[in-house]
Design a protein that fits this description.
By secondary structure, the chain is an all-alpha fold. The protein folds into 2 domains: 82 residues, no CATH class; 46 residues. The chain is built from 5 helices and no strands. The relative contact order is 0.07.
Amino acid sequence: MTSKIQQCSLLQVGLVCLFWLASELIVHFFKLPFSGGIFGLGVVLLLLATKRLTLNLIKHGAELILADMLLFFIPAVLSLLKHHEFIGILGLKILFVILLSTLCVMLVTATVVDFCYHWRSDRGKSHSL
């Protein structure tokens, strides 16, 4: 089984996610004052230091996760560095507009769904008589 995990990056990603999920559950259960990710990182570091976990079991999976994370975070950071005005009051205004428009869309959608639900239920009652 160990050699299968060493060869398959997807299984290694699953193992890393398993450590993360287990540490999140432990932190939540014991109400620890730090995040599960930090706790899981400490557990993995401890297991690596005591040689209960070999680096080959998680190396390729961790590299795969880190490579994909860079794709998501680098463009956003670079655009912030390029446009300093988004960090100040302009950024807050844009964030406010985005949140307000999202709230408006959600409210209109909920109102239309509620109206259609009541319209169909009233229509069904009148046709059953």
